[in-house]
């Protein structure tokens, strides 16, 4: 399952601001985006990911992504960080 990569990672960021920053710094190795996140979130993250050739993995819901990230609330985005 796609969310297993996040669950098993020690190097990740969660949320729009942190994901955006990781993409802008070109340190994100993969981005996770919840399908039910706001369209403005989708467009911003997708544009940055495309610019950096960063793969995007879609997750069905914000709740599923939040659980995979180990937080009790939903998450619109998350990213694995290249180390």
What does this structure look like?
The chain is α+β, with helices and mostly antiparallel strands. The chain has a single domain (2-71), classed as Ribosomal protein L30/S12 (60s Ribosomal Protein L30, Chain: A). 45% of the residues lie in helices and 23% in strands. It has four helices and four strands, in the order αβαβαβαβ. The protein has helices at 2-7, 16-24, 39-52, 62-69; strands spanning 12-14, 28-34, 56-59, 77-81. The protein has a four-stranded mixed beta sheet, sandwiched between helices. α2 runs parallel beside α3 (39-52). The longest helix has 14 residues, at 39-52.
Helix and strand arrangement:
Blueprint: H1 2-7, E1 12-14, H2 16-24, E2 28-34, H3 39-52, E3 56-59, H4 62-69, E4 77-81
Parallel strand pairs: 2-3
Antiparallel strand pairs: 1-4, 2-4
Helix pairs in contact: 2-3
Question: What brief labels describe this structure?
Answer:
83 residues, alpha+beta, 60s Ribosomal Protein L30, Chain: A, 4 helices, 4 strands, globular, Ribosomal_eL8/eL30/eS12/Gad45, Ribosomal_eL30-like_sf
Quick recap of the structure?
It comes from Tumebacillus lacus. Residues 6-78 form the Ribosomal protein eL8/eL30/eS12/Gadd45 domain. Helices cover 45% and strands 23% of the residues.
